[in-house]
Design a protein that fits this description.
alpha/beta; two-stranded antiparallel ribbon; 15 helices; 545 residues
């Protein structure tokens, strides 16, 4: 056994590891910023040094330096992740050590700082001896876990330190990366077949492939998607600057009466200018929305005052996609996947991330002994309008296979004993779950419907993969969703109805004068729904009211 002692576990300070992780995170960001600055300088090189062998050599040298910085980013972040997870695990082990001391005190056994145990002479009997034997077994199991954790973290640091300081990576052909939609179990086998150096290579060279691939461990998807996020921020910022410059040029040319020079083939240059300016305005609005969402995600990822967040999916296509987890689901005891409803999009992602944060905190509050990962899954194109899109199944039908694939991926990459996986849908998000569960069946231990318009079935027994006693639903008394006709139209009947066959839990009634606000109030401070959701997520079903 390693040199980890009971006293070390008992007095361990998880903050030291979290601070170390934050330091490596800062190093990673600094490395990334320097790579971006070097790339910008390299692009400008031809403007001041147009041609010649020396110019080409300088450009090649700068490109090589940038690639070195880019290749250093994944190992630096892997070290940061390992340290952050170590801090989380140390906190759990330390809490268990304190609990063991308390158990010993209650059983008249003193557990000394070095882990040795002394029986109270006044209670030296067979019962106390049995208690002491149990405590010894628990102590040894705790120390074994601590030693394994120590070795695991040390290995992660050792594997990545050499690469972070410049050791070349092992190349992997792009065509060998499994296609999106491949069975996550097969993806995991492929990933496990790669060496640590090969994994770092595919994360840095093919981040857009690895980041979206269910079956790749979450920690690695996080790094790939952070690279994608950085590229999207840079690209959209540059595109916005180009649009601003183009708009300024068009306006200047029109003001100078030179519109015909801009649009020589247009019969009406002024009209052509107005049409292009309108297109610029529309594109800029889309870019501003995406930038708003991307920056909100970036801020959460870099927030050292909150539990570590992981970026598991990202896209700016259509209204945008984002999958953000508070905590690492691959290492958690409980995993909650939250699917938002109508109107959810990348530009508005901040509020949904806040909900994921609140549910993670709630779960930790009701059961400090367990680690819970709380995920925002905006992995589908949510309806834009309650009136025009939400009554129809198109978004749910499109999102259901993606949700099932993602849930299967969570199972494939989870470490250790299976976690309790709960999938929660708000509003139209519950409809997406309904389609996922009535199709192939959803890979979850429980499903939760909050403020649901219906899940396209009228019976909990038709939801495959989840027993009826783990189908939960809540609808606030003054939720505007009650205005949806309960006549088996649109998405079926209200899942809180008794004949649906699920289990109904309480929410605050809400504001009768503002039913729209009540529809989004389930995560407000003091709402009964929050505590009930936390109990469901942590498997304390008997405490749900």
């Amino acid at each position: 056994m390693s040199g980890v002692t009971f006293e070390m576990v008992l007095n361990a300070d998880p903050e030291a590891w979290r601070k170390a992780a934050a330091g490596w995170d800062r190093l990673g960001r600094s490395t990334d910023e320097r790579a971006d600055a070097l790339a910008l300088s390299t692009r400008r090189l031809p403007d001041v040094w147009e041609s010649g062998s020396a110019s080409q050599a300088a450009g090649a040298h700068c490109d090589g330096l940038r690639k070195e910085l880019d290749s250093a980013f994944p190992p630096v972040l892997l070290i940061a992740q390992a340290l952050a997870q170590h801090g989380t695990d140390v906190a759990e082990l330390s809490a268990r050590a304190e609990e063991l001391v308390e158990q010993g005190r209650a059983a008249h056994v003193t557990i000394n700082p070095d882990g040795s145990m002394t029986m109270d002479p006044a209670h030296a009997n067979e019962g106390t001896a049995r208690s002491m034997s149990s405590l010894v077994w628990q102590r040894d199991a705790l120390l074994r876990e601590a030693a394994e954790l120590d070795a695991r973290t040390a290995k992660a640091i050792a594997e990545n330190t050499a690469t972070a300081s410049g050791t070349p990576s092992a190349k992997v052909d792009r065509s060998s990366v499994p296609a999106k939609g491949t069975d996550p179990a097969d993806v995991k086998k492929w990933w496990d077949s790669l060496s640590p150096a090969q994994r770092r290579y595919v994360m840095s060279e093919y981040p857009e492939l690895v980041g979206s691939l269910d079956g790749v461990p979450v920690a690695n998807r996080d790094i790939a998607n952070r690279i994608v996020l950085d590229r999207e921020l840079d690209g959209l910022t540059q595109r916005r600057a180009d649009l601003d410059a183009r708009e300024a040029h068009i306006r200047a040319m029109v003001e100078q009466g030179r519109g015909a020079e801009l649009y020589p083939d247009a019969g009406n240059p002024a009209g052509a200018a107005l049409a292009e300016l309108e297109k610029i305005k529309e594109e800029r609005e889309r870019i501003d929305g995406n930038l708003r969402g991307l920056n909100r995600i970036d801020d959460r990822l870099e927030d050292p005052g909150k539990p570590r967040a992981y970026l598991i999916g990202l896209s700016t296509a259509d209204d945008g996609r984002a999958i953000v987890s508070v905590g690492n689901p691959d290492a958690a005891d409980n995993v909650l996947t939250y699917i938002p409803g109508t109107g959810a999009e990348l530009s508005k992602v901040g509020g949904d991330i806040d909900r994921a944060d609140r549910m993670a905190l709630d779960a930790k509050r009701v059961d400090p002994s367990q680690e819970t990962a709380s995920l925002l899954w905006l992995g589908y194109d949510a309806p834009d309008s309650i009136a025009w899109n939400a009554p129809f199944d198109g978004s749910a039908e499109g999102g259901a296979p993606e949700l099932n694939q993602f849930q299967n991926g969570l199972r494939a990459t989870h470490d250790g004993e299976p976690s309790r996986n709960v999938v929660l849908g708000h509003s139209y998000g519950s409809t997406v779950i309904g389609h996922a569960a009535t199709g192939a069946g959803i890979n979850a231990d429980a499903v939760v419907f909050v403020g649901s318009p219906g899940v396209d079935t009228n019976s909990a027994t038709e939801l495959k993969g989840v027993p009826p006693q783990e189908v939960w639903a809540s609808r606030a008394e003054h939720d505007a969703i009650k205005r949806v006709p309960d006549w088996d139209l649109a998405h079926g009947n209200d899942p809180t109805r008794e004949d649906f066959g699920g289990r109904v839990f309480s929410s605050n009634p809400g504001d009768p004068d503002n039913e729209g606000a009540t529809h989004s109030a389930y995560w407000d401070d003091g709402n009964l729904a929050r505590e009930n959701i936390a109990y469901i997520v942590t498997g304390q079903n008997g405490k749900v009211t």
